[in-house]
Amino acid sequence: MALTGLEIFKLLPKTNCKKCGMPTCLAFAMALAQKRAKLDDCPDVSEEAKEKLAAAAAPPMRKVVFGTGDNEVQVGQETVVFRHEEKFYDPTVLAVTVSDKLTGQDLKKRIEAVNSLQFERVGTKIGVRAVAVINDSGSADSFAQACKAVKDESPLALIAVTESPDAMAAAAKQIKDGVPLLAGAKADTAEAMAKIAKENGCPLAACAESIDAVADLSEKIKAEGVEDIVLCLEGSNLQEKLYNLSRMRVLSLKKVFRPLGYPTISFVLEGDASQQVAAATSLICKYSSIVVVETVEPHAILPMLTLVSNIFTDPQKPVQVEPKVYPIGEPDENSPMMFTTNFSLTYYTVESDVEASRVPSYILVVDTEGTSVLTAYSGDKLNEKTVANAMTKHNAEGLVKHRKLIIPGYVAVMSGKLEEATNWEIMVGPRECSMLPKYLKEVWK
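^ that's the sequence the OP posted. Answer follows.
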């Protein structure tokens, strides 16, 4: 059981040295009990106390890592139920299935289709991060061969899915250096599956039909020496699964109930692409750490990846682009120069519309701490001084000879002061970015 703040305080040095960043040892103890501090922050705690405090210091949800190299993924390690309380840490891993019934070119094409599900959104690369090999054939040999083929031909992390310990053992020998996630153990196979996972150094998924059963199963697997566990709820409809996943989240994070303190995996294998998207997006929101789908349709995968990107973006740190001058097309000294803010969505919207105009241009990106034009102007992060300083810093004067600057129509009010600050002619652009192509073709001189 987790220790209380006072119980933790009794084990601390009680020097009030403030080295941990807290005013007193009692304040640090309370923060540690609430999972808002790390034991490592105290440099003077004794080894004996460290052992006793291990349960209190450990994250309420264990981090589980699988895959290797640049494509290693980690799930778990969450500390809050709702993002606004702090932020979510490890993005939901989206995985796509490969059946072990496929062979030869069919298998190769399926792997290539999964590998290709990579995209770029507002300057950030997003994509499928794991391949789940399903033992549809029931054959240990076919399963092992399919797992090896995926390991050899895909850079993505691997999930091996079978209920058969024999099939899992055969596959694990072929792919253990890729550190796959093994899924999954059930009540009657827990010991055998745990032995395979422990021997091959792989995390293991525990699968059961109720919260109580999956909690008992995780304890059983842990007793066999496997620490890295992923939980899987089976046999319920979507509504029940969402309810139970939410209950598990609260029990693990708020009540610090260790048998449920692990990331989760959900399988969405039924229905057409749109039905899978509907179910998978619900599970991404509440609160599946790994979601496995069958569809390889890009139009179905992209919305799910976009949702993951949005949910796991730190709400206090908007996605930003680097402040500098961006050339669009092949601009020269006579090309238009305009500015916008470094909020990613704003910049990439402007960039897209400038590209659509086919007028080579320069876009000066001003650092407004990742806020949009109106938000930045309202908060005085965008004014004549910040724009003038950005122009000087990024050598706007050395790029064009016409000394004309196009500003967003929504901040036309700053044109006079900006003209005084820069000695450039200020041209007020359209309010709506979608009108930029027409403006650049008809108004720009």
